[in-house]
Amino acid sequence: MEAKELARLAIKALEDKKAEDIKIIDISKVSVIADYFIIAGGNNRNQVQALSDNVDETCGRAGGKLRQIEGYESAKWILMDYNDIIVHIFSKEDRLFYDLERIWSDGTFIDKEEFMD
User: Fold this and answer.
1) pLDDT in tens, 35-57
2) Half-sphere exposure of 34 (CA within 13 A, CB side)
3) 115 vs 4: CA distance, rounded Å
4) pTM strictly above 0.85
């Protein structure tokens, strides 16, 4: 499955569970670890885990292979590695603390509405 198509599925799965402030960063020109970072937030531990579960179920049904997942139990920062896309789901506090948007500012931020068209 193409990275962009898998990223769209992950974003839709996040939206379905009311993720907050979804950001898409194209990191393909600045890193070899993936093509896209998707960053989203949840309001509490249960929502963060529900967001992760829905991404896993949605992408898995479409043939996306979850290579690695970290942080599920604590649900402060869940990292889901699908090779070409990496989904980061944060609690509010941890998202502010780690500030991936600043760290990966060399990447290209993509407007979600344009990306989903």
Assistant:
1) 999 999 999 999 999 999 999 99
2) 24
3) 8
4) yes
Long-range contacts of 93-98 (CB under 8 A, 24+ apart): 95/39, 95/41
Distance CA 50, CA 12 (A): 13
Place of tokens 């379905």: 16
Go through the domains of the chain in sequence order and give each one's CATH number. 3-111 (3.30.460.10)
Q: What is the pLDDT of residues 7-25, one digit of tens each?
A: 999 999 999 999 999 999 9
CA dist 117 and 8 (Å) reads 9
Cβ–Cβ < 8 Å for 59, 67? no
